[in-house]
Amino acid sequence: MDLLKSLTLALALCFAPPALQAAAQTQPSAALAHTELPQTVQRYADAWASRDAGAIASLHSADSVFHLVVEGSPVASGKAAVQAQFQKILSDNPGYASTVRSIFFGESLVVIEYDINMDPPHAFTLGSFRYVPTGRPYAIPAIDVIWFDAGLVTAKHTYLDTGVVRANSRSAKKIGNAQ
Prior knowledge:
Layout: H1 2-14, H2 18-24, H3 37-50, H4 53-57, E1 60-69, E2 75-77, H5 79-92, E3 97-105, E4 109-118, E5 124-126, E6 129-133, E7 138-149, E8 152-160, H6 162-167, E9 169-174
Parallel strand pairs: 1-8
Antiparallel strand pairs: 1-2, 3-4, 4-7, 5-6, 6-9, 7-8
């Protein structure tokens, strides 16, 4: 997981969307003060702990993007699309909870390594696959790279170990037009 974390951080910093690269080069007053970032991240974590997709989305900018980086998962663009994606995640796993393992704070981004506690009550779709759960709870290793500006999330990329999802499912079937 350390290699995955290092690779994710390196990729996030090298391949940030052009708008984010431009934002990183703006005047310091436009960036979130480094001392405020931990409090901003805590508010965001509290919103996720509330399991309220509206509360989570309220901490995203109007043009925010969310990318669940798994095969076949589209990028959600705009606050409404982001909220819909978060609502699906929470509906598929109503007992959603996470355990943070490490946090790295950058100038205007944070990288969070954590485990998502899973106990889905029914089959669910994740990217190009439909999973049928075994009924046993498990944890998925995950890494979030989250960019902030003016106290709001402008982009969030979530990387999951889908091999853990497959290993903890009765079946995993590719769906749709996915190749």
